Amino acid sequence: MLTITTQDVLTKSWIELNPDEIKYCIYLIRDKDAVLYIGRSQNPIERLEQHFGNHNYFSGKSNIGWYYRKYRSLAVSWAIDLYTVEECRTRLKDFLLQKGYILDRVDMQISEMVMIEYFHPSLNIHNNPNPSRLPKQYDHPLFQLKPGATDNLY
Length: 154
Hints:
By secondary structure, the chain is of the alpha+beta class. It has one domain (2-143). The protein has eight helices and four strands. It has a four-stranded antiparallel beta sheet with strand order 1-4-2-3. Strand 2 and strand 3 (34-40) form a beta hairpin. The protein is globular and about 40 Å long.
């Protein structure tokens, strides 16, 4: 796992952040212990740049992009944990087995789906029927806590 910040994504090259060229494909964005968003991409830095509006892509299409723009002064210090598929398998091995997954068949798509199911990130909508409560500094009527939602401490 590699942990970087939003500021790193916006100011450093991928080779500076990942000189060993490890094939990270799952990203988990968090504010301290609160998991905000989980996504997947073959090129996670490019995708994160898209979310944060630093690319030829409108960041308003994603919840995390909207929150980044609205709370930029807080968002620049968000931590972003980058995982390989193997690291996801290792981190969530017991959870995966409990859910009936065959570990060597867990790919990037399943890794993202299971990470979302496990962490209940506040801003993921798909495959996340019970998103966690946003930290108080991000309260917004669009993302009121749904019944049955949990706190998503990392």
